[in-house]
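Consider the following assembly input.
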Amino acid sequence: MMHEDEFLRVPITMDLTFRYAAGRYFTHFFREIKDNKRILGVRCAKCRKVYLPPRPFCGECHSRMEDWIEVGPEGTLVGFTVVYFSFHDASLGGVRPTPFGAGLIQLDGADTSLNHYLGESNVANLRIGMRVRPIFKEKREGNISDILYFEVLG
Amino acid sequence: MGRSVAIVGTGQTVHRSRRDDVSMMELVREAATSALADAEMRASDIDAVILANMELFEGRALPEMWCAMGAGALYKHTLKIATGGTSGTSGAIAGFHHVASGLFDTAMVIGFEKQSDGQTTAGMALTDPMWDRHVASAAIGNFAVSISQYLAARDVDERHSAMVAVKARRNACNNPCAHLQMPDLTVEDVLASPYLAYPIHRLEMCPTTDGACAVIFACEGKAEKLCSRPAWVRAAVTRHDLPYLGDLKDRLLTMRTLRDAARKAYEIVGIREPIKELDVAEIYEPVTYAELAWYECLGFCKEGDAWRLIEDGLTQMDGVLPVNPSGGVLSTNPIGASGTIRTAEAALQIHGKGGRRQVPDVNLALVTGYGVYSWSDVMILSSSKG
Amino acid sequence: METKVAVIGVGQTAYSIQDSLHSANEMVLDAVEFALADASMELGDIDAAVTSCIDLWDGRTASNFYLTEVVGSVMKPETRVAGDGSLAVFHGALSLLSGSYRSVLVVSSCRGSEGDHEAISNWVFDPIYQQPLGLDYLSAAALQADYYMNQFGISPSALAHVVAKNRENGARNPRAMLRTPVSLDEIERSEVRSYPLRAMDVAPVGDGACALVMAREEVIDKRTHRPIWIHGMASALGSHYLGDRVLSEDVALRIAAAKSYEMAGVKDPTEEIDLVELSEHYSYQELMWMESLGLCPAGKGADLLLSGATRIQGKIPVNPSGGLLSGCPYVVAGMARVAECVLQLRGEAGGSQVRYVSRALAHGTWGPCGQAHCVIVLGAHR
């Protein structure tokens, strides 16, 4: 009978690069954030729901969407947490220091909410219903991390 | 329509945080041979093999090409279902469809996950590259955010959540295969465990596990010969939902896919009062608060009353509807297998093979699966063909 | 099969090496809309979706999440089969036969341009024996090609003839990715990718999606639908370890073909099948798959090809569409073969149309060196 420590493990590291096509909707969305610090959603002509992120098709009504609507920039915190353990963070290329706040933010005018970091990491200072505001990067690149985090306004 | 199908045998591996003693293929083999022994069948009696697994968690692609060899799948029709946490139940539903179609008399479904081989969190982090990927808090953070909404809407306090954790890990002590078995766990222990992501304490979250589970389906005509008390599949319903974390308001609380799948399943079988008519439920509960929220989605109680069910012990082993006698996902979570384990655990209750976790007189059992942000599967198994 | 199921709608995007205009879901939406229009159905009329895409190829976990909205599975059933699109067609058909659904939308998609196909394929090989050797689909295929060619004395020019035929066919097919013919000379002078396979022996992967609407016969309306019926279907998985197989033959494909023929009542495919759309990811595979499909004896695939019998005007046209060598995304490949068969059987194949088609065979394969296969026999008549 072999002991646990005697079993072999074969180490193989995955090193694959992907270059994801953003397509029409995300390209337009990120361009507006990058160039104009504007956040856009898209509205379904049938159910009037405003989706963030914008996407080509309303999954409820089965119809294509072409109405672009500016939303936010401010919004309401509709869910939150403070994370106490560390994970590898692809956008930092390392581990994000803990604790950090994260939450679901419903931007004014949007019907869905956006998952992002919060500028507050003390649970005692977070409540559903608080107002929040995005803090943009100075040098934006055209992706969701152009918003660094949402500042909690109280 | 299609012919009747029943589960005639189940098998599971010993589930542990690390199974260094087996490769992924051998893990599959362990579950497969256990199920075949349970059903007193040979591998050659199985017409089709369905594997359920979330390959990126081990960093694989098409792992069934290799691992199916451990299930006696050579030269058989073999396919893999991969749908996040619902893989195990979607795999079971696929097995049911295979046999109901008339093309296969028997099918074996094996859900498996060998998380110690890979980097689950790296695998889980590969959500939409444009959108949800940037917040590096994984499933735990996502649940935590949804739980904050649940707590704002319901009169539940953290004690109720801790009671769910205690029920799960104590039930697991009756299950020789279960990963986390904690006979002396108390509510205080759970609440004293450190926060992973507020408000989730470490002991309120499911573990990551290496494990596999196999379930054998057979058609009417064969099932009765293979099993003295076949577990007939009376309903199998799946619902998927919008793709992003923030797309659904109060996702955990509403879980409309689960509500609708359960409603449909109950309608098919003719169940009106689930808490009275069901004899046992094996539900997929990734975190304690989910079990509470989903008591309501599953119609076990009125909206807002979930805390009563756990406080009054109605879902304990001696309660009116035992929920997760196996210990649930909270005790054992090899993700691709977790849904298959729910299916197996419900079936073996009907088979009368529950050992120390057997609920008396089980005729009607509920199985649920959960995955990604809001995907749900619901199955109802019965001792009668209907 | 007592109850019959049929394909009533077909949709394919314009396959390309790199589609930068569409994101993955935007691309799939196009294919779905084409298929629905072709079937004269709305998304809300469909009971369930069966999707087919592979996480590592998509670079996303539970990657079918990106398809949910566009395949109509919001608050509806969907299941995702990993493997080739032909397997998803099989699974869609059997879920119809199970009685659980009356109609299904089957969708296959791949974004080959977003990742490195060969590098990704290394991760299919088991991590203990084969992956550490650095094997990928191309090098494994090269091993098999070499073994097969030595076993039966097949010359490289036979492979070149496969490429030339399929590229010529692709040039006539408005749906093909590559639409220029290539000469034998160009093929035999293209650079060696992995001996003995040259660049043109390797089917290009790229971006695209295919969608089919399938339904049980009681849902089919002869006035609005043009059903193409499934007569037989089967799949089989071969051994994963290359060294366990005799690489010059394919037992799994023989088994899948035999089962499919039996179900369809086909005794002699060379007489009863009017055209074959098979998945030749590498040129030599067309020869091997023809043999295992029973179109000719073992080792005689090259003879059959060189006799001209498999040309569009021949006795048993193989890949009149231009096949994979004219370009088709991975995973989509097998489903696109079914789509091409449906178009042929309806007489809607345009420039690639074969005359007198009443039964066709579609084939898909996945895994190293054709480890697993799916064979589907379709017919214009119920």
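Residues 24-39 of chain C form the longest helix (16 residues). Ask yourself how this observation constrains the way the partners meet.
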